Amino acid sequence: KVVVLGSGWGALSFARKLDPSAFDVTVVSPRPFFFYTPLLVGSTTGIVSPGAIIEPIRDNVPKCDFLRVHCKDVDLENKKVICDSGLELDYDHLVVAVGAQPNTFGIPGVDTYGRFLKEIEHGRRVRKEMLDIIERAEVALAAGNIDKVKQLLSFVVVGGGPTGVEFCGELSDFIRQDLKRRYPKIAEYFQVTLVEALPSLLTMFDKSVGKYVQDHLERQGVSVKLKAMVKKVEEERVHLATE
Hints:
8 helices; EC 1.6.5.9; NDH-2; FAD; flavoprotein
């Protein structure tokens, strides 16, 4: 008996490689689908539909059992997985591949005012709130409140890794190709800023890659701030410490 906790890349890649004639495999996760994370940022701008990047677990690993429950605890001595609804699962081998929560690094205000981009629901939320903000900016312009328009249309993206860089690219394309056409009166006030604490972007790759991406984003109108560490986040302001 093999119990796999999680429904992401690691969990399902492992489960698919097991011989169903030799192992009794049960996948446990509160999320009943796998989703293709590289396309998550596209769901924030409507390039892809959230439904197009998800696949039901039962289709992804059809030869395994799947239970949509939360794992609450593991009894290692007795080899039992304790789930909600009073369910207990025996196992011979346990694979824990539940992923991780976004890291706030203990920065005040991030949990309250920040928006993460890790799950399907995050993409939906970012898209909805972004479009709501744009409509509010149109109203603020009609009321003659230019300062409010500028504040509403200033987007700050924290993190110069793959997700942050890709989101900035998608967002700047969305602004240039769609929003400026649909909202011409407020077009000049859009501003995207990418903040990274390290001296370059995409530090997991060769330096030339990060430099190329930085130049590309800046040509698209993205303001890139390197060696800038977020110290505090407020409802309408991000405080940075820079060298």
